[in-house]
Write a structure and sequence with these properties.
By secondary structure, this protein is an alpha/beta fold. It has eleven helices and eight strands. It has one domain: Aldolase class I (TIM Barrel, Alpha-Beta Barrel), CATH 3.20.20.70. It has an eight-stranded parallel β-barrel with strand order 1-2-3-4-5-6-7-8, surrounded by six helices. Helix 9 links the parallel strand 7 and strand 8. Helix 2 packs parallel to helix 4 and helix 10 runs antiparallel to helix 11. The longest helix has 23 residues.
């Protein structure tokens, strides 16, 4: 089960990204399962050497290419989750149904794309689907992680990072709360803007127990470290859920024949451990507001 106040998630549920890469490099899509295995083996290696990961680590993988890994992780006592959404779909569609057969991990993640200037009917339909998933997760005692991606559409990058995306995330989260969509975690894009981070933090903290984890957007580790320096000081911040920044380059090297599986696994584990260390360093600073303001989290 996910730890309520600290999560170090290795997110390896990428599907369409691997499909596009395999197709472009004339590599059989069947090899995607090998990339998932690398991520799992690296996670287990890091877990073996890190008490922090044993206590707070989590793994996100998809059943489409890694169903056997989900089962293996469950048997090993790993906090493993699976994605509910159909990869790359907008508006939101389910990868498979019914949920009780499709979502076999200990937690559920769902990705939605949102812009406040999209057709309101698209947003309403996505919220309706999220509420159905939320109800199932509560009944099944599965924590829900809602990932919200807000794409830039021509806005100046600095302005969008500091005010545009945070304002849209604020609106999405508050509208979700108004309709009693209250996931255990929001999976949010990192930012260098302290102002933007505070806007997001205030929105998530508007409901008792609101928590956020930072996603990676395939950024380099140095950039993610800067995001952590901002995010970890927020009262609702619980950790991260990062994938391609950790595993993509080593996995590509392995699938291309430029690295052995052991070498790739070791690099992935090292990248993951570096992120855990970075978060711990930045999280040791005092938060920008008291955690008492956000209270205790919901159960289920």
């Amino acid at each position: 089960m996910l730890h309520r106040d600290r999560v170090y998630m290795l997110a390896a549920d990428h599907r369409w990204q691997w499909e596009e890469w395999c197709d472009a490099h004339a590599i059989a899509r069947a090899r995607i399962g090998d990339a998932k295995r690398l991520a799992f083996d690296a996670f287990m290696l890091a877990r073996d050497v890190s008490p922090e990961i044993r206590e707070h680590g989590a793994l996100l993988v998809d059943a489409q290419y890694a169903s056997s890994i989900v089962a293996e992780a469950v048997r090993a006592g790993v906090a493993v989750g699976t994605p509910a959404e159909k990869a790359g779909a907008f508006p939101l569609e389910w990868a498979a149904e019914p949920f009780d057969r499709a979502l076999t991990g200990a937690f559920v993640k769902v990705l939605v794309r949102y812009r406040s200037d999209d057709d309101p009917s698209l947003h309403d339909e996505q919220i309706r689907k999220l509420l159905a998933l939320h109800a199932w997760c509560r009944a099944a005692a599965r924590p829900l992680v809602v990932e919200v991606l807000v794409a830039r559409r021509g806005e100046p990058e600095d302005e969008f990072e500091s005010t545009g995306r945070p304002a849209m995330l604020d609106r999405f989260v508050r509208q979700a709360y108004d309709r009693d969509l209250v996931p255990e975690f929001w999976k949010i894009e990192g930012t260098l803007s302290a102002h933007g981070a505070r806007v997001i933090d205030d929105a998530i903290g508007a409901r008792a127990g609101g928590r956020q984890i930072i996603l990676g957007k395939a950024a380099d580790l140095a950039t993610i470290d800067k995001w952590f320096a901002v995010a970890a000081r927020m009262a609702t911040a619980a950790g991260f859920a990062i994938g391609r920044s950790v595993f993509w380059e080593p996995s590509v090297a392995y699938l291309s024949g430029a690295a052995t599986s052991a070498a790739a696994r070791d690099r992935i584990a090292d990248n993951y451990l570096r992120l855990v260390g970075a978060w711990r360093t930045h999280a040791s600073a005092p938060p920008t507001r008291s955690s008492n303001e956000i209270g205790r989290g919901p159960t289920g």
